[in-house]
Amino acid sequence: FLVLSSPSLFISWVGLELNTLAFLPILLSSKNKLTSESSIKYFLTQTLASVIVIVGGLTVFILQAEFSMTVVLFGLAIKLGAAPFHSWLVTVAESLTWIPLFILLTVQKLNPLFMVWSFSPMNSSFFYLIVFSSLIVGSLMGLVQTSTRALVTFSSISHVGWFLTGMAFSLETGLLYFFIYSVILLAPILLLEHTNMSHISQLPLIQVKLQNQSILFFSLLSLGGLPPFLGFLPKWVI
Fold first, then answer.
1. How far apart are CA 66 and CA 70, in angstroms?
2. For tag attachment on the chain, is the N or C end more exposed, with fewer CB atoms within 10 Å?
3. What is the DSSP letter of 147?
4. Of 29, 26, 33, 38, which Cα lies nearest the Cα of 90?
5. pTM of the predicted protein model
6. How many angstroms separate the CA atoms of 116 and 56, rounded?
7. How far is CA 29 from the centre of its chain?
8. How far, in Å, are 136, 232, 235 from residue 122 at the CA level?
C-alpha cells in the first residue's frame, strides 16, 4: 500500500525495503541449509537492486533525468527477476517449498511493477530490451529444464515480459495480466505440492496421488496461455 499510494520515489523505496524484510522470515520458515543459502542470496540481490534504485533517484539532479530513470529501471528489473538479470531467481527458487515460491513469483513482483509504471521510461530502448529478453530467455531456457521448480520459474520470467508490456499500455492492463497470472499459477503450484513432484521424470508416478491427471495438464496449458483456457485471455487483451 505504501508503494502504491506514494508519489515519491523515496517513500516507494522504503515500501520496497519493508516488503523485502517481511519476506525473509517466509524464506527461512523451512529449516534446511539450502534455504538459508538462498535467503542470503535473495537478501544480497535485493539490497544491490535497492542501492541501484536509490542511486538512480539521487543522481536525477546531477545527470539527465532520462538516464537516472533508466538506472532506476535497471534496479527494478533485478528486483523483478527479469532477464538478463534473472539468474538469482532460479537459484533461490530451486531451494524453496511451493507456497513461498508462489509468493516469490507473484506478490513479490507487485511493488517493482508499480514502481516501473510510476517512475520508469516506458518507451526507452532499455525497457524493450528487458521485455524481449525476458520473453525469449523465459521460453527457451524452460525447454532444457527437468526440475519443476525451474520450469515454473522460467515460465514466470517469460510472463514478466508480458507484465511489462501490459504496463506500457496502461496500469489496468498490466494488473489484469498480473492477477489472472496469479490465479492460473496457483492451480499447478497446489497440485505439484500435493503430489510432491520435484522433477518431470516423476510424472508417471503421480497417477497414484492424482485421480485425474488431466487437471494438472489443463492447468499447465492455461499457464502456457493456450486458448480456450483462462491464461489466453490476458495475452489476447494485450
1. 6
2. N
3. B
4. 38
5. 0.92
6. 13
7. 20
8. 19, 24, 19
Cell of 114: 508499480
Query: What residue type is 194 in one-letter code?
Result: H
Q: What is the pLDDT of residue 208?
A: 64
User: What is the rounded CA–CA span in Å between residue 70 and residue 121?
Assistant: 7
Q: CA 192, 185, 129: angle at the middle one, nearest 5?
A: 125
Q: For 127-168, what is each residue's pLDDT tens digit?
A: 999 999 999 999 999 999 999 999 999 999 999 999 999 999
Q: Which residues of the chain have pLDDT under 50?
A: none
Closest by CA to 157, choosing from 196, 130, 188, 126, is: 130
42: amino acid identity, one letter:
Y
Is the CA virtual torsion 213, 216, 219, 223 positive or negative? Answer: negative
Please state, in angstroms and rounded to a whole number, the distance separating the CA atoms of residues 177 and 123: 20
CA-CA distance, 157 to 160, in Å (whole number)? 5
Residue with cell 524452460: 142
User: DSSP letters along 193-212, please?
Assistant: HHHT--BGGGGGGGGTT-S-
